Amino acid sequence: MATFNPLKDNIAVVVKNFKLKKKSESFFDRYSEPYIISMAVDQNGVHNPAIDFNVMPFPHVRKGDTVSFDGQGHLIYGPANPKEFLVYSVLFMESDKDIRTVGERVESVVKSEAVKMGAKALLVANPTYATAVSLLQKFSELVAEEMKKNKDDELFRRNGTLLRDVTPPYDILRTYESENDFIKTNIGIIPLPASNNLGGQTKKIKLD
Prior knowledge:
The protein is an alpha+beta fold. It has helices at residues 43-47, 102-117, 119-125, 129-148; strands at residues 10-20, 31-32, 34-42, 50-57, 61-62, 66-68, 74-80, 85-94, 153-163, 175-179, 183-192, 203-206.
């Protein structure tokens, strides 16, 4: 790998895979309908308030199945250079309704909760990674609670903070495994000194 320059090179944060260890409830249905919601804020998103957002549904997943991804994985963030920091939150939810509408539902919740929280004003007033961490943690709680009103169940939540001025910067090349009773997952940080062909780009939601 070429020498990584944290001042200009990009990174990507990805879900490499996840295992559905068990369903949230003992329904008679054979399949579960999990989906991933990811949100991330870097230093750019603090100074020009915005959230990198992605949602991916997975229909027809059985208990015990491992879902893997072609290429590098499912994007949580990037490819981009976060500058001084990146904070992210990943929610694994289980849908109780038509999984095809999950993306639209979640995006609507993200936008409405951002307005209610006054997220833009908070970031502008105190543009630090501590503010971003606090905001994103609260934000993920609100989104999860709102989705639960539609009878969706929260399976697992994972938060992370990556810093540029540590060794290695942004914890590049590391993979973090975590699990609870429902989900086991691996999240990786990939350095990108040159462009690769990662697809499924995240969506940037401007905070009004």
